[in-house]
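Possible race condition, two jobs.
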Amino acid sequence: MRWHLVSPSAVAQTARKTPPPIRVVMDNAYAPFAFQSDEGKSQGILIDQWQAWEDKTEIKVEIHAMDWVQEEQLASDSHQQIEASHE
């Protein structure tokens, strides 16, 4: 029989490893799903859902709400991980 001893600190370090953030790109003029407030802050149903997902999973979400033309350009260049499309 073999025994493998692992220090508690090694286990804790492994458990705390933070995954990289997820980049989400979406249209910023698609109310009520995603739009900008008068102050320029992104808001809407999709923003709220992604923030709730981030809170639940503890995985950081970077939301990039932008003009649809810019969003499509990023999608074709594959710079984002998730495109929240409304097609």
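Job #2 (started ~2 s after job #1):
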Amino acid sequence: MEPEFMADDRVELSPGLELRNNDVVLAKIKATGETLLRRFYRRGPEGKTIRLENRNPLYAPKEHDISEFEFIYPVVSLTRLPRRFRQIKQLGVRTPVGMPGKLAGLKTGLQNDVKC
């Protein structure tokens, strides 16, 4: 099964947007500090149980009480680098100034902790 998200994908979050079932979200669990990019579903009589599902069936869904999250932000857009630029970056080739996306400067604070 093809992954929904790939390494080096960029997501835009909207913290103020209402969360709805089937939204893709970035969520951080307080106890473990684990940051996940998953599909969001509310469960339970008052919607206080949150289920995060991965499209890949090899990974089990995770269910937590809403109070166990540091944050849950919906993803509003995803940008994927063209295959050629991903390959250049993987090879460690230095990119010239002005190359689309300025590949050398695309790092973010969450890049290393997000699990897809």
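The first helix runs from residue 83 to 91.
Logs attached separately.
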